[in-house]
Amino acid sequence: MSVNEDLMVMASDQPLQSVVRDEHLLLAPPHPSKVPMKLWDEHPPLTVVHYPQEYQEEAYAPPRGVYENDEIRVEWQKLDGRQPFYHRNCDVDELCYQIAGERTLMTELGVVEHRPGEFSRIPRGVAHDNYSRAASHLLFYIPAPVAELVPAQRESQAVFPPFPGWQPAPANEAVSWNLGTPGRDITIFGVDEQRLLEHVHNDDRRLQVLRPDRSQDTTWLYGTDRVRIGLVNTVPGGERRYRRTLDADEIQYQANGHRTLITQHGILDLKPGDFVRIPLGISYASVATEAGDYVSLLSRSEVPQIAKTSRTADYYSPERLAALTAEVHS
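The structure corresponding to this sequence follows.
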């Protein structure tokens, strides 16, 4: 079967070039070669990290690191109730994506009531805390400054009390560096919570709450010269088109719906709550039998997985691909 493959670079939504491929040759082991080369089956299959989206009660725990390098950290956080301190980053902007549940984000630039599917960015140096109700969210720590690439749906507001029943109480502030990694705090000290939150009255800046455009295949929401973050919508049917990013690793988080990811490093059935990393230069395509979406992060540098692997990809076989094709057309 012939398929099209788009050769992409991070800074452009248009392919540098499109190549017609034989899909079997694209995915199968290479032809025998007398020249020493790393064999097809010596490349490890892709791995998945999974955290359930359904809330499971447990004691407070710090965010779980999923991927990290010297300039990016991706975390998953589950919380019910207050975070035990305010947090201020020295070196990074802190971006978040709300997965599930309700969360009041309280900052020196106002309050946001986060809903599932929304993104926001906390600028470097702005203190913040959370009050969550059976909620989970993703965190992206990226060297400042990070720019919003689309207009905001709404902004943070000066809200007092920030949530019903709130009363000012003794609180601590943690100042951290090195991507906000737990245990890398510079100092922790007591603060006046009400005075901290009232800073909003003396600052014109506001948090920008973004929600992707559901009418577009891909909405890029944030960017620097080395990182891009967006949301990709997937729909059943249509052309199976491959994509090879020449200058960036890609981390994907399956937010909604099920899909099959076909790659040169294996085939994976993805469900909500799954993370996967596609290395730079590896061709892949998505096949969906229901509508869904996933968060995509592109990075010019490799972002290794630091979390425990939940499962690994299956190696390609013509039978597996044929069964997948039959399922899509059934």
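The longest strand covers residues 92-107.
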